[in-house]
Specification:
The protein is α+β, with helices and mostly antiparallel strands. Among the domains are: about 40 residues; about 100 residues, Endonuclease I-creI (Roll). Helices cover about 45% and strands about 25% of the residues. The protein has 11 helices and 8 strands. It has a 4-stranded antiparallel β-sheet with strand order 1-2-4-3. Strands 5-6-8-7 form a 4-stranded antiparallel β-sheet. Helix 2 crosses helix 3.
């Protein structure tokens, strides 16, 4: 469809002033795709190279929302990953659909770290994928790479270590919320000739990466939380005082 040249001129003028494609399209009553094409052609004629705006803390110098980042880092190392395509990276964290509070916490953490990219939710069976698209997610998670996390080295950069040291509980909370759980164990004892049932809570963390497991246990050591290696992939926290600490700062998923 051909448009009046004066309409195109007005649209280009508005676009150069910083008005968005959507607003220009609504103002002039033309398709947004047409406005986008006019913007592209105008930039091409003027030799202007488009750089998508970003609020990446690593690239703009903006202060990192360190508390949100510590939690998001734990989620990423647990059940998160980045899918990379041409000029596009998607950060995804998968949450059990039965824990709406965890889904909301993951969404808030992504928005807290980089507010500009939208955060979407996609349900897959019994899981919800919390996802955000940005070319800059690998800047914030340099652990991203080819292959599975447990098959490659996972080492924090110095700036990540500083954030974890400043917000250790948020980091542990992210790891537990992704690859951990709070369970109730039980046993029976005979007391005065009567067998009684006793229940006690404990926390588990399960991850196949030794590096990620060591990041958790090293942080627990600094927090004074006692833990045991249950098996090659499982960390158990069962001592009463340590469980009480975990309940105070972590608690069950919700």
């Amino acid at each position: 469809m051909e448009h009046n040249p004066s309409i195109r001129e007005e649209a280009v003028l508005l676009l150069r002033r910083g008005v968005t494609n959507r607003v220009v399209a609504e103002h002039l009553g033309i398709p947004r795709g047409t406005v986008g094409w006019w913007r592209h052609e105008d930039r091409k004629r003027r030799g202007e190279r488009y750089t998508r705006p970003t609020d990446c803390p690593r690239c703009t110098g903006r202060a990192v929302a360190s508390e949100a980042y510590a939690y998001l880092l734990g989620l990423y190392l647990g059940d998160g990953h980045i899918v990379s395509k041409y000029k596009e990276h998607r950060l995804s964290v998968f949450c059990d659909a039965s824990w709406p509070g965890l889904i909301e916490a993951a969404r808030d953490a992504m928005l807290g770290v980089m507010p500009q990219p939208k955060v979407g939710l996609r349900r897959q069976g019994g899981c919800v994928e919390v996802k955000s698209y940005s070319h800059h997610w690998p800047c914030l998670f340099p652990q991203h790479g080819a292959g599975k996390k447990h098959e490659r080295r996972i080492v924090l950069d110095h700036w990540q270590r500083e954030i974890v040291d400043a917000h250790p509980w948020e980091f542990v909370r992210g790891l537990i919320h992704s690859d951990g759980c709070r369970t109730i164990n039980w046993t029976t004892r005979v007391v005065a000739g009567v067998r009684k049932r006793y229940e006690y809570p404990r926390y588990f963390f399960t991850n196949r990466s030794e590096d990620i497991t060591h990041l958790l246990t090293g942080t627990l050591d600094r927090l004074g939380v006692a833990w045991k290696q249950a098996n090659a992939c499982n960390i158990s926290i069962a001592r009463k005082e340590s469980v009480a600490l975990m309940d105070l700062h972590i608690g069950p998923k919700y």
